[in-house]
Specification:
heterodimer; A: mainly alpha; B: six-stranded mixed beta sheet; 10 helices
Chain lengths: 253, 308
Amino acid sequence: MNLTAVKSIYIFEMQRFFRTITQSLVSPVLSTSLYFVVFGAAIGSRIQEVEGVSYGAFIVPGLIMLSVMTQATSNASFGIYFPKFIGTIYELLSAPVNFFEITAGYVGAAATKALFIGLIILGTAFLFVDIQIAHPFAMLAFLVMTCFSFALLGFIIGIWAGNFEQLQLIPLLVITPLVFLGGSFYSITMLPSVWQTITMFNPVVYLISGFRWSFFGTADVSIGLSLFAITLFMGTCLTAIWWIFRTGWRIRQ
Amino acid sequence: MSNIVSVKNLHKAYAGGFEALKSVDLDIREGEILALLGPNGAGKTTLISTICGITTATSGSISVGGNDTVADFRAARNLIGLVPQEINLEPFETVMNTVRFSRGLFGKPRDDAYLEKVLDQLSLGDKKDAKIMMLSGGMKRRVLIAKALSHEPRVLFLDEPTAGVDVELRKDMWEVVAGLKANGVTIILTTHYIEEAEAIADRVGVISKGEILVVQDKAEMMAQMGKKQLTIELSDPITDIPQALADYALERAQDGLSLIYTYDTRGERTGIRTLLNDLSEAGLKMVDLQTQQSSLEDIFVGMVREDA
């Protein structure tokens, strides 16, 4: 195991993040604040409590998830796409590192950035609404697992993408709708029954539900199912990455 | 000298069916500078990429320092430094940071003193904190070399290090290569400049259409280059070379209408004057004389064309 290589990739990626710290942090914090103002204060004041929680507080876990999922995906996809685009990937391919070490370095860094942003948004939320976290450790565990699994997904997208448009395509066309329709802003029990059934096919539902449970102790689906869903998702992504490096798909001729 | 790199029966076909390498065998001796000479598309870069692990071979085997590049990829790659043909660098990083990253990738502990020494040798010492995008083309190429040397490799592959580089910088690069050789690094460079191979290589390999046509000591190749041919055209065809001229290395050509005499320009005597005397004494009438000298370029072009 070439731990030095993992560390080098991780540090190299984190340096990029800190070099652009302002734009890395300002935009998610600003957009989340806007959500709080619009949905929490303006519209939320007209909405009754959802599952015994004020609407402003109810949307906090969903908002964090929304940011964390998109950030983890885009950071990881850019992290591996950029070396491919500028050609420096030759160095990764000719270095004494295996797929696991490359993935650990890039995904670890992308997940850390997303976690950082998630925690900052949580901090921002305290300024707007009154919330208590029922299970803080479970909350952190869910957050970390979500960061990692979506960074893995982003890593796959970055390897698959042949240009910058494709790099944006999956997050825009798949992840954003899934997250919005996954109950970020509502409880799925608020949907008509047909849509409730359809929604159950959205993997993001389980993640948001589990994360919300760690805040308020109530969930749309059972916590065990949530854990199972996130583990399954992570396993699928890891298998895909293992296959990519074994076959050299899109990276090795 | 022992072989540090050994390529056996290497074959590479790309997905489209194009055969980039057809059964390549190549042994690279420890401590030498080997120049791989070949036209564009000959398979030079594919060969290097396959040795370094960027491309996977269709069949065949490669060992570096006795380690198989697939089974023992870590041990093999630890010994290798690669300088790619294209200038592939992170534009927003500083020189030192990117070199440090390369060293780390190879699992070596951080050693800024060593890296600074490498940068100094490449005249980049005062640029270590500069962003790569601020550097000139020649400096960027040297940063690539610094990255390749960052983990103290024993074999360095330089893929067309002087392509598109001006004459002065090319000479600089040759000095850098000579300095590395003096430090005991084995160097393999690809080029399509014959003068480059002449200037710095110990051995020259010619590759064309995915096949290695010849690998030879440069001195031997130069000896071939030193040969010159004199063609003597005769007025009447001869069937046999007269007995009086048997001592000369003569060849009959054009159905006896001309004689070809091969001699060494570096010899003390070319023997041309006595040959011409003996020719007229033997009663042969000359119509014309012409001389030809083969250069490495001729040898090279000849080989590549024969192969076509």
